[in-house]
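Worked Example 4.2. Consider the chain below.
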Amino acid sequence: MENAEKWIDLGIKKVMDYGPKVLGAIIIYIIGSWIIKKLIGVAKKVMAKGNYDESLQRFLLNLVNWGLKIFLIITVISTLGVETTSLAAVIAAAGLAIGLALQGSLANFAGGVLIMIFKPYKIGDFIEAQGVLGSVKEIEIFTTKLITPQNKLAIVPNGAVANGNIINYTAEGKMRVDTTVGIGYGEDMKKAKEVLLEMLLANPKVLKDPAPSVNVSELADSSVNLVVRPFCKPEDYWDVYFETVEGSKLALDKAKIEIPYPHQVEIHKEV
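Applying the procedure from the previous section yields the following structure tokens:
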């Protein structure tokens, strides 16, 4: 009975000593989380009014959000009575160990910063990076998210992207569509070029500047190959590509210009 009373007294003493600190830490965390949420909302509105680039907005908001949360956690821990000086030493040591273990993640973070500074692409651009082709959906702190032409989500590390080759198909606002059409050696080459060029100019999605072109690209084994090159807006690329392929066949058929194809010859041996 005496031991039980002793433990109860000790428990009450601990509650009296640490209860206010724990309660204070909980209150600080709740209020701090609310303040962070409000600050992020205000920062988002300020950036929107300042016409900040959407990619930069998301990157900075993520960075500020994580920075404020780390500061809040340190404040909560110090409220519980943990000395911030010793805590800082522990965090520094842990940071060094984590940094060595997560060199790739740090490289991706640095890559994200470089992407934000030099802006090789932005959200909505159609790019090719690290062998992946797609539209930029989101630029995060460590990764870039792309939507491929097959509507798949591809996540590419920023470090690899920043240190690799990037092809931005959207940056100039115009894309060239390259297709090849073969005609027979006995056909009127000049007429074929005129027919194909007329077909391109009739397509409203084909840009007039730069002007489309049709040129002889190769004298192949069984055909004279013409390279058909219209320009279009990036968002119209696939429409123009498929329309050019189909339109070339229909236009040449209408003009009675032959498109060569393999012929099978059967040899019958008399017995």
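The helical segments are 2-49, 54-79, 84-101, 103-118, 158-162, 189-201, 237-254. The longest helix spans residues 2-49. Compare this with Example 4.1 before moving on.
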